Amino acid sequence: MAGALLSFSATAIAVRELAPALVLFDILAARAAAGVAIVGLVALSRRRPVPARRVPLHLARNLVHWGGNYAWSLGVTLLPLAVVFALEFTTPAWVTLLAVLILRERLTASRLAAVVLGFLGVLVVLRPGLAALQPASLVVLGSAVLFALTAVATKALTRTESVLSILFWMNLIQLPLNLAAGRLFPAVPAVAFEGRHGLALAAVCVAGLTSHWCLTSAYRRGDAILVMPLDFLRIPLIALLGWRLYGEPLDPWLFLGAGLIVGGIVWNLAAEARRRPLAPVPRRA
């Protein structure tokens, strides 16, 4: 979990540093290319094939995930980092709602509480009607919905596909999408690409994979009721980093809203643990 916390935070900071020198689509293309190379080498070294048995579902999942990735990355460049992370943590609430609507799962009291507290937390973070409500906030909230749809599709894919196969095809499908979007919507970078940007680009490529490898490994070795609350430490960690690196204010409303979001998720996790052993919580890849 320490590796996941550091990797997710490093990805956000690296995207923020790279944005003036590279178009976002080019940053995401580089990350996808690194993913294809690294996951492909792992598959070869382990002699594990990565077939795509359900191509339509792979395509649908990755179109949605591609949109979510772009929206999240755009939010990182426009909003305080802690706000982005707090809004991203509404994804489990959206997953719960979508699982009831799409997968016909049962809506229990604890699941309903997680959804309601998640939405209340969003209202506290964004404070509709005040200056904190910006179009960029709605973009990041939209990314959380897209990540939730991705999680539902991932849950369906894991019935027939390996994690290695899902990761490989995710990067392989999204690489040409990012390259094409970068050519269709060209933009002139604000600053020249320098050596420090090279380090940030390497961080995006590496941390983009290590974050999810670390998180998946943590869920494999520990119960979700213990692991997921540790993941929430990303909010205070990125808030401190944003304050130290970019002078972003430590907003008490943000922490109150994040507390409501986190409280609903932990409540639901505890209730699920009492009902049956927990499977790993779906997260974005």
Number of domains: 1
Distance between the termini: 16 Å
Large-scale geometry:
globular
Q: pLDDT average, as an integer?
A: 85
Order of helices and strands: HHHHHHHHHHHH
Number of strands: 0
Secondary structural class: mainly alpha
Report helical residue fraction: over 70%
Low-confidence stretches: none
* Radius of gyration from the alpha-carbon trace, in angstroms: 18 Å
Q: Biggest β-sheet, characterized?
A: none
How large a portion of the residues is in β-strands, by DSSP E?
A: under 5%
Number of helices: 12
Secondary-structure blueprint:
Elements: H1 2-18, H2 24-46, H3 55-78, H4 81-88, H5 91-102, H6 109-126, H7 135-157, H8 163-184, H9 195-221, H10 224-231, H11 234-246, H12 252-275
Question: Summed up, what is this model?
Answer:
This protein is mainly α. It has helices at 2-18, 24-46, 55-78, 81-88, 91-102, 109-126, 135-157, 163-184, 195-221, 224-231, 234-246, 252-275.
